[in-house]
Amino acid sequence: MERNIILLFLTLTMACAPEQRNNEQTAAQPVSKVPVYVKTVRPESFEHFIQVSGSVEAEQDAMISPEINGQIRTIHVKEGEHVERGHLLVSLNTSITESTIDEVKTGLKLATKLYEKQKGLWDQNIGSEIQYLEAKNAKESTENRLKTLMAQLEMARIRAPFDGIIEEIYSKVGELASPGMMLLRIINLSDLNVKADVSEIYLSSLRTGDPVHLEFPSYPDIKLETPITRIGNVIHPQSRTFRIEMKLKNPDNQLKPNILTRVKVVDFSTDSALLVPSIIIKNDANGSYLYIAQQNSQIFTAQKMYVEKGPTYEDQTMIISGLESGQNVIVAGYDQVNNGIPVEIK
What we know:
Layout lengths: L1 H27 L5 E7 L3 E21 L5 E6 L6 E2 L4 E5 L2 H29 L5 H27 L1 E3 L4 E6 L6 E2 L6 E16 L11 E6 L2 E9 L2 E2 L9 E9 L11 E17 L4 E3 L2 E10 L2 E15 L2 E6 L6 E5 L9 E4 L1
Parallel strand pairs: 1-20
Antiparallel strand pairs: 1-19, 2-9, 2-14, 3-5, 3-8, 4-7, 5-6, 7-9, 9-13, 10-11, 10-14, 12-13, 14-18, 15-16, 16-17, 17-18, 17-20
Helix pairs in contact: 2-3
């Protein structure tokens, strides 16, 4: 009986020895830690932009046509030539008008002499009042007719309405010109107008004077900032957009009308945003979350933190709630951790 008890004790002791040794070895091994990189979040500046495509127009861009009919006698400019306001562009044939002017000037001399003589007699109470009035009316009518002809003569000389560049000439010498017919195009590139259509959901976010950032793919080095000068009052029924306009100076004439333009409008800005890389934010059935490295005793562990996201721009997202300043957000290695596992901050 005693022998059997001793044998049973030895058997149990030998069976438990390996398990005890394994536990001792496990306790002796260091805890495995996942290497991670963190960002200590602090309040910082953040701007959110609306990005749309814009169109550039010249404020002074005119298609020139004559005010009267006439044959083109001379074109005084060439395409690409810079002209100043009042510069003579095109002359129409005015031979008939000039001949008529000569006739009217001759008639005016006679009407003036008759009027002066009749006035002299009337001042001396000689002759009738009707004769005096008829002479005066003849003189004034001739003067008015001469003014009209001189105005027609000036209309046949087409001049530049503003400083600019002759962009295109559509007609040739000898062709017949008439009102509404395009003779040439003149454009001034010094002052430009940028227009863009923005979704109506941003209507309450934008105000006249808000800054706008302009970028031009054709000129990567040109980045301009200018305020909104006008906000449209009508929502387009099909696109559900409204128009904004910005004035732009172009002193070197480098920018051209219709150049491709990216318009970035600031619709939100703050100096106290907690920002994290957008890629680290994940989602589950309970909402959006990220991992922070939190110190427990002597080690850091990954802690799952549910947050409320704010606006996102490019690769940064603003956290509205769930995250506090000074916390260490895991920004690299976040896809290798789970809640509560030890981490090593690199």
